[in-house]
Write a structure and sequence with these properties.
By secondary structure, the chain is mainly alpha-helical. It has one domain. Helices cover about 60% and strands about 5% of the residues. Helix 2 packs antiparallel against helix 5, helix 3 crosses helix 4 and helix 4 crosses helix 5. The two termini are about 15 Å apart.
Length: about 180
């Protein structure tokens, strides 16, 4: 149903369905390019040899980043409803309960937050999450390997790729208005 202002009303459940379907599809279709970028990156002294089908960790990083992003666009508890609905929708695909899935996403968010401290930039956190979860430190030149930090040139280039995996909530909110479900 369209509102007077032209935005379609949707529930958190419907938002979860749209988001989950599209973000998983985006990761499945886009990870081969990310893996190729990482494997061919001249900043590494040896190729990390990331398999283009090994996108499970990447999907969790993308979800953790996007979960952090949702609260910037929704309030009054709607952000929590959306995250809970997304979690309930995705958990079975990972053969987990919603509680287990929430804990796994939380684990990824914490790893990314620690690696990115004190910055609050979600894209940087996602890039550092990829660096850590795919153990890329071992493929770097000795200087960065000893420091256990990503080469800043590699990280900047990865940031540019990671931006493509953040959901555009501004555009979504221009088209849709998220509402509480109607009780019958």
């Amino acid at each position: 149903m369209l509102t007077i202002f032209g935005r379609k009303k949707v529930t958190a459940e419907r938002v979860a369905h749209i988001f989950a379907h599209n973000i998983v599809e985006t990761v499945e279709n886009g990870f081969a390019e990310v893996a190729g970028f990482i494997n061919d990156s001249p900043e590494f002294v040896q190729s990390p040899r990331i398999d283009e089908n090994d996108y499970g960790k990447f999907l969790m990083i993308v979800l953790a980043g996007n979960y952090s992003y949702i609260s910037q666009y929704f309030n009054n508890g709607m952000d929590k409803q959306i995250v809970e609905s997304i979690t309930a929708k995705l958990a079975p695909a990972f053969d987990m309960t919603p509680t287990e899935f929430s804990m796994k996403v939380k684990e990824y968010k914490e790893v990314m937050s620690r690696a990115n401290h004190p910055s609050k930039n979600i894209v940087y956190a996602m890039s550092k999450g990829v660096f850590l979860k795919y153990n890329l430190v071992e493929c770097q030149e000795e200087y960065f390997k000893q420091m256990k930090t990503p080469n800043p040139i590699f990280l900047k280039n990865l940031d540019d790729l990671m931006k493509n995996f953040l959901w555009n909530w501004e555009a979504f909110n221009e088209k849709y208005k998220v509402v509480a479900p109607a009780f019958e």
